Amino acid sequence: MPESSSGPFSIMQMFWGNLAARPLRCALSILAIAIQVVLILMIVGMTSGVLAEWGKRQEGVGADILVQPPNASIFFAFSSAVMQQSLAYEIEKLPDVDEVAPTLAVSDPKTMIIIYGIDYQRFNALSRGFIFRDGRPFEGPDEAIGDDIVAQTRHIKVGDTVTLVNHQFRICGIVAHGKGARFFIPLKTAQDIVGAENRVSMFYVRSKGNTEAARAEILNLNPQNRVRSVSEYVSLMSSSNLPELKPFIRTMVALGIIISFLVVLMNMHTMVMERTREIGILKALGFTRLDVVGLLLGETAVLTLVGSLVGIGITYLTEAILRQTNPSLSILLTPGWVVGSIGLALVGAALGAIVPALRASTYDPVDALAYE
Known about the structure:
By secondary structure, the chain is α+β, with helices and mostly antiparallel strands. The chain has helices at about 10-20, 25-60, 85-90, 120-125, 150-155, 185-195, 210-220, 230-235, 245-275, 275-285, 290-325, 335-360, 365-370; strands at about 65-70, 85, 95-105, 115-120, 130-135, 145, 160-165, 165-175, 185, 200, 200-205, 225-230.
């Protein structure tokens, strides 16, 4: 057997030879693998990014504890306003509680943006307060505060009128993002809009330093309520901790592998048929079945790595464009998933290449050389 028969040099020779002889087919294979990588990274990146960004906004509120009704969803858009607002007065009297902010979370039906109905003084007291980029706090029932991200995305400025939950509001202030919601309106106005008089969705609580002691005291008031530390809540903001998202992510990953498998299978099957004489010559020169399989799989691996790198480049370019055009959309591209997407592409490509490669390895050199 030739010294370099199955080495990297021979694999690269076959790859570049195939690329030169069949540029369109190779380009389509690289593009299909790149699409698989982009599909996986964008789906996982957008899911993880939205959850991570939501978790950071909850930390930015300044509370230590989040009090919700029994069986409340971790997604505030699906939370009902069933807790009596008067519970705030009971919580604030507890020895280890410093501040309490009753909050009504409302989801705008058109944009699905979460809007907080807040008691401004109480909510502002949870942390160092809102940082105003422009304007002032709301003073009337039909005034609203927006954060700088939504203001940039929707080109909103102080004095503009916006429609939130089918109600007209005048923007009175633009604040730095990171305080939970994108828009803030007076608590009483939010209650009137959704028909939840004297009721709220949750309470943000800041302890005097001992979070667990304050949490235990709040639970004693009503053991049925769901009382979490904010750090515990933020830890749930991961796709791996949300069973509802796992089937979706697995489906997208499987779809990507299927795309890679089918494209490589068709490409390798056609390539093997066209290169029957070439394979016969290699076997006549002393290549074993294992050598032929190794060369074809090596060529597929090079093709897949090139497609993966192209896909990663397209993904980062897309992420940069979306960050500029839609600042409210958060995409989190982790090194683990970037490497994982390459691995998944290699798996799909290997599955698609193995059958044609095994078939090629069984060719009889005499028959292959006589093939037209």
